[in-house]
Amino acid sequence: MKAFKSFILLIKLMKYAVKIEVSLKPGHSNPEGETITQLLKELGYQVEKIDMSKIYTIIIQSSSQTEAKIKAEEMCKRLLTNPTKDNYAISVVEQ
Amino acid sequence: MKVHDIKICIMRVGGTNCDAETARAFKIFGVQTEIKHINELLKHNNLMDYNMLVFPGGFSFGDYVRSGVIFARALNAKLGKQMTKFIDKNRPILGICNGFQILIEYGLLPGFEGASQQPEATLTTNIPQGFKCQWVYLKNENKGKCLFTNQIPQNHFLKIPIAHGEGRFLFPVEKEKQMLEKLIDNDMLVFRYCNENGTPANQTYPTNPNGTYYDIAGICNKDGTIFGLMPHPERAIYAWQDPNWTQNTRTNPYGDGKLIFENIIHNITTKQ
Question: Which of B256, B172, B263 is nearest to B225 (CA)?
Answer without folding.
Answer: B263
